[in-house]
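User: I'm putting together notes for a lab meeting next week and I want to include a structural view of one of the chains we've been expressing. I don't have a solved structure, so I'd like a prediction I can at least talk through. The sequence is below, exactly as it appears in our construct file.
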Amino acid sequence: MKLLAIVGTNADFSYNRFLEQFMAKRYQDQAEIEVYEIADLPPFKKEAQPDSKVEEFKNKIREADGVIFATPEYDHGIPSSLKSAMEWTGSHAQGNANVMKMKPAMVLGTSYGIQGASRAQEEMREILLSPDQSANVLPGNEVLIGHAADKFDKNTGDLLDQETIHAIDLAFSNFVKFVEQTQK
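Assistant: Thanks for the context. Below is the predicted structure for the 184-residue chain, given as structure tokens.
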């Protein structure tokens, strides 16, 4: 199984990047997980043709059996860089877009606060379920990781909290089964 893990921010330091890297390493025996950065994607413009970076991004999604999004929460929503990246993949974009149509998707996130990027995750699910994206999002498979600074080692990126690891294990197992079901 080939999964694309999209880091939902263009920030230089991100606990969500640590989260995606943790998953790629922990579940390497279950899936090939590529961690993908959106920092180099240009801002979306409806009338613009996608450049080579955007085409690479869309091709990575096309080639993946499923996509995992890890998003922080800024001002009660997803970062503008993630929103812009997703706009390149929607049916309204120029070129051969609409790459998320029926693509299995998982959303999770971590934040400094107590709510674990809950609003951002909800917004990301709404975007993925919109008619422009039409992704196949597994319902009820939420992982809300609050107090990121207390759960990750800031120097190594290691996830240290066993309760959080257990929650991610369960959600990832559910997602793998979901992706397998969509492939039948």
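A couple of points you could mention at the meeting. The longest helix spans residues 162-182. The chain has a mean pLDDT of 95.

User: Perfect, that's what I needed.
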